[in-house]
Design brief:
heterodimer; A: 434 residues; mainly alpha; 20 helices; elongated; B: alpha/beta; Rossmann fold; 14 helices; 48% helix; globular
């Protein structure tokens, strides 16, 4: 009985200390969050788990601080809605009055959680706030404006220690977000494109190796097809063609197998497919090599800067892209020509407008664009139709084309149906869309 | 002491309350204070106008307790020997003839009409629980409780009790006038049937002594004792921390007996409530009957019509509970 009474009073003491610690923790967390906000507002972020861990120190101190137990016992008894039972128990225990102890212990079931209820409510918002602030902060790289190309390409090598210091979660978040602000030359879509082409992720070197292999196979296939179309029924050629088809990537192999179905061979279509594939491959190979060279030169460019490109730039595939200055000049010439005629383009001279109240007519409002997508707006005039390549390392000369133009391009070019989706995806990636 | 004894004592007290309540209409507070005094081995000063049932209460109490009862009607010509008893000469020589004080329950009716000399003899017996006649000291019966009444309005031909003697009463119960509903019930009971019937004994002397022992052993936490001491000290005008009303209107504060009365009254109340621990409310309920007759107010208070209870209310507010 005495032991039971001592145990209950011991629990009271323990829970009172715990409650103190919780109170101290909630207050210190609150003030730390306040300080955190102030520091952040001042541009001095002090975000560190250790910063919030410091809140534990007051809690430990508070729990160890001397407790005036006899007084606290009354408070605890009231909080537990036990009236004066706990002080009575302590008094009976101190006098070793077992009769009263037994009577008091008979129905003494302290509802301990009551000791903490308001404190827990006080602590919860602080913890919630703390939890919110502990979430990974967005990487400043995302919100930064596009850097000049030279600075941008230097980031991966220069910022390695800084990235190591970042929290793992923020580093992961950063990895997930593609780091290719529009207009910078550090972005190369070819790894993505090649990954889409082969259905698996691979290094650039691996992709180049496979491209070279496939190019050889395709050239040999083109020769064989020429022979086969000249002398149909040549078994040797047919066997070699079948062997090559099995070595090609599945979609291309399937398309060619369909065209060369035994008994219903369409040599012309097969040759067209092969030549289209060769053309596409040579283009991809060339661009991939360019991208590889660019990646390899990132560090050097970062340190040495990048040469300015002005006027028109000739793409590797021979297409011409105009820069802003050239476009402006074109527009000016057009405007001058219209002014000289006294007419806008497509207009005829008519009756002068009579003065008077304006005629009220219902006209359809022009759609007001709230967002300009790549390939739209004034830049569109600078887009040359055709299969655009990427302008490696030149900021401002990159004009993604609209999906409609992609469709037009697909219609004009003899691109095999199996590759059409891939090309669409390619331009989607280029334009930054999903 | 065994747990069964405590249970028995509580049961007996419950019966006693019921028995007295069956006779006395209303006056629950007065009955409660009288029972506190009985359990605390103290005495009660009942103050109230005549006809409020003070005497009936005491008679009902003594009957229900199964104890001896005597009544002293105090008058100016009442002598100490009339209360204490006297030595009379008989064939066997001088022998002591005990007075009415030698009873378990003594009703000193209109005590303020007795002369100071007689009052002094009575109060000495109350305090010492013995009476000295000649050279011989005679112990009074145990339990012994004096219930004295006084009329607060008829002061002519009276001898107000000196403060030192008022202090001997553990509690002062103010008998209030009954409410209409209670008055109707009083009239009905006294005018119908056989009239008023006193209760049968529900306790024995041993039961009463047991109850008194339980209250004595009732455990009280030190913080409660400290709280009561602060309350008593706060009634002293010279004390630091005494409320302004005390500083202004009190001539003399409560004596240490006030503290005893507070604790004993609180313990008795807790026990009567069936509890084995004190609460602040117990002290609060005992505060007025324990201290109201122990404050001596100054002339300024009298002039301004300030009552002791008004001052005590400020004292209660000024001292924070544990």
């Amino acid at each position: 009985m005495v032991e039971k009474a001592q145990a209950i009073l011991g629990k009271v003491k323990f829970f009172l200390r715990l409650r103190r610690a919780l109170l101290a923790l909630s207050f210190s967390l609150f003030f730390e969050l306040l300080l955190f906000q102030i520091l952040r507002a001042l541009g001095l972020p002090l975000f560190s788990p250790a910063f919030f861990g410091a809140a534990l120190a007051p809690a430990v101190l508070a729990s160890l601080f001397p407790l005036r137990f006899s007084r606290a016992l009354f408070w605890a008894s009231r909080r537990l809605r036990l009236g004066g039972k706990l002080p009575g128990l302590a008094a009976a225990l101190s006098r070793k009055n077992t009769v009263f102890l037994a009577a008091l212990l008979e129905d003494l079931l302290p509802p301990w959680p009551r000791l903490f209820v308001p404190e827990v409510f006080a602590l919860l918002p602080a913890l919630l706030l703390c939890g919110l602030f502990l979430l990974p902060l967005p990487s400043p790289r995302i919100s930064e404006p596009a850097l000049p190309a030279g600075e941008a390409v230097s980031v991966p090598a220069e910022s390695a220690p800084e990235e190591k210091a970042a929290t793992p979660s923020s580093a992961r978040a950063e990895k997930e977000i593609p780091r290719f602000p529009p207009g910078t030359s550090s972005f190369s879509p070819y790894p993505l494109l090649l990954a889409g082409l082969y259905g698996e992720e691979m290094t650039l070197e691996e992709a180049l190796r496979r491209l070279s292999e496939e190019e050889g196979l395709l050239r040999r296939l083109a020769e064989l097809l020429g022979q086969a179309s000249a002398e149909p029924g040549n078994e040797e050629v047919a066997q070699e063609v079948a062997g090559i088809l099995s070595s090609l990537r599945p979609d291309l192999g399937r398309a060619l197998s369909q065209a060369l179905e035994p008994g219903n061979e369409d040599w012309a279509e097969a040759q067209a497919i092969v030549s289209a594939a060769l053309e596409g491959l040579s283009h991809l190979q060339m661009e991939a090599q360019g991208a590889e060279g660019e990646e390899g030169g990132e560090v050097a460019l970062g340190t040495g800067g990048q040469s300015e490109v002005s006027g028109e730039s000739r793409e590797p595939n021979g297409e011409i892209l105009l820069d802003e200055e050239a476009q402006a000049q074109m527009r000016q010439e057009l405007a001058e020509a219209q002014e000289g005629l006294g007419l806008g383009a497509g207009w005829e001279r008519g009756e002068p407008v009579q003065p008077g109240p304006p005629e009220k007519r219902e006209v359809e409002a022009e759609p007001r664009l709230t967002a300009v997508r790549p390939g739209e707006g004034p830049w569109r005039t600078g887009v040359a139709l055709g299969l655009p390549g990427e302008n490696p390392g030149e900021e401002g000369n990159f004009f993604p084309i609209s999906p409609q133009e992609v469709e037009l391009l697909l219609r004009e070019r003899p691109i095999p149906p199996s590759l059409r989706e891939l090309v669409r995806r390619y331009f989607e990636i280029l334009s930054g869309g999903e | 002491m065994e747990r069964t004894e405590i249970d028995k004592a509580q049961e007996a007290l419950s019966k006693l309350k019921d028995a007295i309540s069956a006779v006395i209409v209303g006056q629950k507070d007065v009955i409660e204070v009288v029972l506190w005094a009985l359990l605390s081995r103290g005495h009660v000063l009942l103050e109230g106008v005549p006809g409020l049932g003070k005497t009936l209460l005491v008679r009902a109490l003594s009957r229900a307790l199964g104890l001896s009862f005597s009544r002293i009607q105090c008058t100016p010509d009442l002598m100490p020997a009339d209360i204490l008893g006297t030595n009379v000469f008989s064939e066997d020589g001088f022998r002591f003839l005990p007075g009415p004080i030698f009873a378990h329950v003594v009703l000193a009716d209109e005590i303020n009409r007795a002369t100071p000399k007689t009052q002094s003899a009575l109060l000495e017996a109350m305090q010492e629980r013995q009476a000295t006649v000649g050279n011989i000291t005679h112990p009074l019966p145990d339990p012994f409780i004096v219930l004295a009444t006084q009329n607060p309005i008829e002061m002519e031909g009276t001898y107000p009790l000196p403060e030192a003697q008022v202090d001997r009463f553990l509690f002062k119960a103010e008998v209030r006038y009954p409410e209409e509903r209670e008055l109707v019930e009083i009239i009905r009971r006294n005018t119908e049937g056989e009239g008023l019937v006193l209760p049968d004994p529900v306790l024995t002397r041993e039961d009463v002594l047991l109850c008194q022992r339980v209250v004595r052993e009732f455990p009280v936490h030190e913080e409660f004792l400290s709280y009561v001491a602060k309350l008593v000290l706060a009634t002293h005008p010279g004390r630091k921390g005494a409320p302004p009303a005390v500083q202004k209107y009190v001539l003399y504060g409560a004596s240490p007996r006030g503290g005893l009365a507070l604790i004993l009254g609180a313990k008795a109340r807790a026990f009567l409530s069936g509890r084995f621990h004190l609460e602040v409310e117990d002290i609060g309920r005992a505060f007025r009957p324990a201290l109201i007759h122990r404050l001596i107010l100054n002339f300024r208070a009298e002039a301004e019509g300030v009552t002791p209870w008004q001052v005590l209310e400020e004292v209660w507010e000024a001292v924070p509970p544990p």
